[in-house]
UniProtKB/TrEMBL annotation:
Source organism, top-level taxon: Bacteria
Coiled coil regions in record: none
One Pfam family named in its UniProt record: Ank_2
PANTHER family reported in the protein's UniProt record: ANKYRIN REPEAT DOMAIN-CONTAINING PROTEIN 39-RELATED
Entries under InterPro entries matching the protein: Ankyrin_rpt, Ankyrin_rpt-contain_sf
Keyword Repeat set for record: yes
Per-repeat ranges for ANK: 44-76, 77-109
Keywords attached to this entry: ANK repeat, Repeat
Lineage: Bacteria, Bacillati, Actinomycetota, Actinomycetes, Micromonosporales
Name the record gives this protein: Uncharacterized protein
Length: 130
């Protein structure tokens, strides 16, 4: 798929993923509001939402969810934004994802499995599984 894109388009896409990783909420939200696909994925299947969750940016997570980001999408490795937020021990992002309807048992490993594997009882509590 990336073979079909020119260098300028690829550079723009990489910049959008960097905005998600960096928590540039307002700038990224502006691009989504202007037409950037909110569920855009990188070459590993990571969505903007997964990247924002993994890099512990709850405001960016909330902004993407408010714009229709699909919290049930999994990366090519089966990981979800919720599992990423649990791994990073970011309760605010976890709560935002749960409030949006994210399933703690979805994905491989799921958010619950991640919390148990890494012995994160605080995250199990947030997930309602303590």
């Amino acid at each position: 798929m990336t073979d079909d894109l020119d260098g300028e388009t690829l550079a723009f896409a990489h910049r959008m993923f960097d905005l998600a990783r960096g928590g540039a909420t307002e700038e990224l939200a502006g691009y989504v509001d202007a037409g950037l696909p909110v569920n855009m994925t990188d070459d590993k299947g990571d969505t903007l939402l997964i990247l924002a969750a993994y890099h512990a940016h709850p405001a960016t997570v909330a902004a993407l969810l408010a714009r229709g980001a699909d919290h049930s999408r999994t990366s090519d490795r089966g990981q979800t934004a919720l599992a990423a937020a649990v791994f990073r021990r970011n309760a605010e992002a976890v709560r935002a994802l749960l409030d949006a309807g994210a399933d703690p048992d979805h994905g491989s490993p799921s958010a619950v499995e991640t919390a148990r594997f890494f012995d994160l009882p605080d995250m199990l509590t947030v997930l309602g599984r303590s």
